[in-house]
Each structure stands twice: as structure tokens, then as C-alpha cells.
Amino acid sequence: MAKSKIKKYRKPLNLNIGMIIFSVIFIYVVICVIMYFQTSHIVRYEVKEGSLAADTIYRGVILRDETVVYAQETGYVNYYAREGERVAKNDLVYIVDETGRLNEELESMNLGENSLSDKELAEFRSEIVNFAHGFEANRYDSIYDFKYSLKNTVLKLAGINMLQSVDELSNAAGVSIMNRSFAPVTGIVAYWTDGYENLTAQDITAQIWEEDETYEKKRMTGNALLAAGDAVYKLSTNENWSVVIPIEPVRGAELQEEGYVKVRFLKNGYESWGATELFTGGDGNTYLQLTFTNSLVTFMTDRFLDIELIVEDETGLKIPVSSIVQKEFFLIPENFVSPGGNNGGDSIVRQYYLDDGTIAQETLETEVYFFDSQSKEYYLDSSILNTGDILYSTDGQETYAVSKRATLIGVYNMNKGYADFKQITILYQNDEYAIVKPNTKYGLSVYDYIALNAESVRDDQFINQK
Predict the structure, then answer these.
(1) Where's the RND related barrel-sandwich hybrid domain (predicted)?
(2) Which residues contact 16 (CB under 8 A, 6 or more apart)?
(3) pLDDT for position 449
(4) pLDDT score recorded for residue 187
(5) Mind listing the pLDDT tens digit for each residue in 283-292?
(6) Could you give the dihedral angle defined by the CA atoms of residues 108, 110, 113 and 118, in that order, rounded to the nearest 10 degrees?
(7) Mean pLDDT computed over every residue of the chain
């Protein structure tokens, strides 16, 4: 039986139109994906109306006219003027017991029970209410000011009731056991020093705020032993006082131009108007001095004070700071730009040379980016002009050599599908956002689309948006 030879049957190529279409689509998708990741994509931002509240909370240092009074003799000091009380010249402020016998003799005497009058009780009530209203847990050290102030008030009230007995005791002993000290000038009494009594605006530097963390007062209390020459109290001799704050130069200039600004004291919520004066400190930084004519007594125990400047929020078009860019332009005098060209835009007439060297003229359509009403100059795109180009005036009587340049602050508008620079006027700016003037002739309008990141955009770049 003969063997049969078996050959493998080759199937004919059978093209499936569905597979072809699928393959083409798949290849197209792959190419699009590759191009997508290789092409820079510009994120757009929709311009909206908004406002920015300026950072108006500041920590300031208080400047006053302060006179420190020093003890004339050594002894135990007892105060008879309450801290924050105004004393006239020659009013009794304290007495000095040089021998130490005063307390011993008074303890041996039966002075009886003393009750406080309504006026005296009102002094306690006023101090307690003011402290409770202004106390903040993060400034716990203020409780020590309250403690010493209250203690001195107690000693003062007790001392007033004892003065008559002290005089009787001195007469009985036949010798004075105390020396009285009177105010040298009129002023408001304070029983602490901190070394800043002679501080002036010219002495202000940033180091003062750095020292705030380790700031300490030297307090004086009744019944304390002081040596001759020690500071015993101080007087604020002028009702006018001021608070100095560090501030940004632009913001400070705006406030100085206003002349006055409303201030809220965070310690107690009180509000007052302060006269503004901008100055440069000894370290070259900018500071704002706010001068007040009232409330000196309220802050007699303070050197540093937290305040809030009550100013209106800036409103306008709110845009991200990352979208802001600077661009350079040529400045062209007003009479060399013709408004309303063939396509509705502006135009200029430029000189050029033919092949045979003959001078000719050409009209160029151009876009105006800004007009300076003071200098009477247009800002024109530098991409269509070169330094040295000769332009003709609108009446053809004058020529102008292009050379002068200037920069504008703006953003890239994306409404037309390409990067179109638009000039902006910034009203206020913080680290993240800026408020710009709305509806300017060459600027932005609400609902415009701009490039979120200006650094990723080139002039007239066609944009793949997302």
C-alpha cells in the first residue's frame, strides 16, 4: 500500500476590516498619549471677583516720655500712690523707713479694724475687670503685672489709713521714723523699669522684637528694702504716646498717606485713631509709628502691645501670584501710533529700504498693551520692532528712532487659545494671591481665563489647556 503524502494547507490571508480599524485607532491613541506627555500643558485659571484681607495684626513696642525717680536714702519703701494714678507735682508718692522701726511699731499698735470705702473698692474692681478682660493664656506673664499692681494698691489703701497713726507714733517717739518723698513733676506713676525708658524712634531695630522672648521687667513693691540710688518708681510725663510696628514699605507708605489709621488694641478690644509716621530704623528696616493722645493710663504696665489695624479690604479681580509676569516693551510717542487699523487694531508706519536702496514706507498692524497718560506713550510689542527702526508720525512730518524700553506687569490671557499678554494694576498682594484693578482698557475682566503658571508660557504660544 503506497503511502500518501500529506501537505499542510496554507490558509489564505483573510483581512478583517474590524481588526484594521481597531489597530489604527490603537496606534492613534498610543501616539496621542506619547505626544500628550511630551507636550507642556498649561493649567488655566478663571478670573473672579474677590477680596484680600491684609495681614493687619502687629506686635508693637510702646514709646513714652518716662522719667525714672531714684531713692535718695536707704530704707524700707512704702508706696502711697497707686500704679496708673496721676500725681501732681509735690504729691506724696512714697515714704522711706530708714530704721526699720515703722513696721515693728505699727504691729505693736492696735489700729483696729478698717473697712474700705466705695471709692477704694471701685479701684480694686476696676483693676480686676481690666485684667480679666485683657488676659490671654499665651501671655501668662501678664498675671504677674496684675499681682504686683494689686499688691501695691492694697499697700496704698492700707498706708493711707495708717498715715495718721504714723504721725502720732513719730510725735510720741520724739523723732521722725520716716521720710516722705514727693513727686518732682506731674505724671502718671508706674512701679517697674525695663531699660527701655529712654528708647526713641531713632533707636528702633529688629533686635527689640527678638528680645521680646526674653523680656523682663524689674518690679518695685511696697515694704521692700532699697538702697540710695536705686530706681524707686517712674513717671510718664506726657499724655501723648506711640506704638512702633515693623511694616512692609509699600503698605507703610499707603498708611502714612492716609494720615490716621484706626487701631484695635487686642489686650482689651478698645479702639482708637493713631497718627501715622513712616521711618527707617537704625537697621535699615521700615517701621510705622502710631501716635495716640489718649489711653496712656490703660497701657501703663505694657511695653509690648498686640494691635490690629482696622483697614478696608481690597476688592477687585483675584488672581494667583504665580500667574503674574513682567514683559518688556518699546515706548512709542502718542503721535506715532494710528488708532483703528484695517482690522480694527492700531497701526504704525515704519521706514524700510527697497533692493535698490530707495526709502519706502510700510504700515504695520500692532497691538497696544498699555497707554501711559502722563508720558503720552504707547507700549508696543518688541517682537514686531527692532531698536533703531524709524517710524513716521501720523501727519508724516516727524520721525522717531525706536529705542526706549520699559516693562509692564501682567498675565497671559488664554481666551483666544494662545498666550496673549494683558497688563494689570495690582491693588494689593500677599504670598498667594493678588487683587488687581478690574475692567481696565488693556487689562482683565471677570471670567477671563489666564495661565496659572506664567513661567511655563511663551509669548503667543498656542496652548493645550486643561
Answers:
(1) 66-208
(2) none
(3) 92
(4) 93
(5) 889 999 999 9
(6) -80
(7) 81
Domain ranges of the chain: 57-108+115-310, 318-462
Task: For residue 416, give Cα distances in angstroms to 133, 420, 453, 462.
Answer: 59, 8, 17, 9
Q: Is the dihedral of CA 214, 218, 223, 228 positive or negative?
A: positive
DSSP 443: S
Q: Could you please report the per-residue DSSP string of 341-400?
A: -TTSSEEEEEEEE-TTS-EEEEEEEE-EEEEETTTTEEEEETTS--TT-EEE-TTSS-EE
DSSP state of 67: E
Pair 59, 214: CB distance under 8 Å:
no
User: Which residue is associated with the grid cell 498717606?
Assistant: 257
Low-confidence residues of the chain: pLDDT under 50: 109-112, 175, 342
Q: Does the predicted model carry a pTM greater than 0.70?
A: no
Please compute, for residue 111, the number of CA atoms within 13 A of its CA located in the half-sphere on the CB side. 18
Which grid coordinates belong to 232?
524707686
Enclosing H/E stretch for 250: helix 249-258
pLDDT tens, residue by residue, 293-310: 988 988 988 999 999 998
CA nearest to 324, candidates 413, 249, 405, 254: 413
